[in-house]
Write a sequence for this structure.
């Protein structure tokens, strides 16, 4: 059974919210030293990227409206397949510099698709 296309932006919103919550007030040093924190952040970023991949299969035009959608998919692929060369500082940077803007864009997209959906 196919999932509704609105499910994927919702998954992405939830994953980005989780990353922001996990990181909270942590600094880069704590992030690098905390395996559980790194693992949680990386997993949610993987989910975000995978949801985008699935959305692109179902509705490519909608997926293309996600800011930097190709870079997000590429980043997901690095997280999944390039783990040996993963740079903690890069994950940290993406999470702090790109994720807040992405989150807002995803919330706006989700509001457009389903104004009554809980956030």
């Amino acid at each position: 059974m196919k999932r509704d296309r609105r499910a994927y932006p919702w998954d992405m919103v939830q994953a980005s919210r989780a990353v922001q919550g996990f990181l909270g007030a942590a600094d880069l040093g704590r992030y690098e030293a905390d395996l559980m924190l790194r693992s949680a952040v990386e997993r949610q970023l993987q989910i975000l990227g995978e949801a985008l991949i699935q959305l692109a299969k179902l509705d490519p035009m909608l997926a293309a409206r996600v800011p930097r959608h190709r870079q997000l998919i590429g980043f997901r692929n690095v997280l999944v397949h390039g783990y040996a060369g993963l740079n903690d500082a890069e994950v940290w940077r993406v999470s702090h510099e790109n994720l807040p803007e992405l989150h807002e864009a995803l919330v706006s997209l989700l509001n457009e698709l389903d104004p009554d959906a809980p956030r």
